[in-house]
Design goal:
This is MucR family transcriptional regulator. Pfam families: ROS_MUCR. Belongs to the ros/MucR family. It comes from Methylobacterium brachiatum. This protein is elongated. The termini are far apart. Strands 1-2 form a two-stranded antiparallel ribbon. It is an all-alpha fold and 163 residues long. It is 50% helix and 2% strand.
Amino acid sequence: MNRVEDDKSRFVTLASEIVSAYVSNNHVQSADLPKLLNDIHGAIRGVCVGAPAVAAPNKPSAQEIRRSVTPDFLISFEDGKPYKTLRRHLTLRGLTPEAYRAKWGLDAAYPMTAQSYSEQRSQLARSLGLGQQRRKSAAPAAEPEEPAPAPTKKRGARRKEDA
């Protein structure tokens, strides 16, 4: 066996051990195992050979972008999972909304929050009266304020007449 075949064998063995350890502690769909194994193997080979470990992500097609936006959730191009809002998800991955849009070639108008979630939060804000302070202070007062009631005598205070 020559050196190249020996390296390939070691890479496969190491990748299978890493995937085995990962799968024993994390839930992975059986359909995702080949991709996971291939990704780990490529990363190991890239580190050892000196090739880039991670290739640039493929830009999604216009159809994939349209499918990623639904009324109830947005599908992340980072992990393929649905989210009501992408901001926290992206922050945990070290991305800003602008960086995410640039990375995946998305338009600047690409939403970061699902439409139904935005409407739900908007209704909640309206029901709580948020944003109504300007209207209340700008409206003229209809009735003048009533004078404050006369102060009452303090407890324990003695009047001159009682003394």
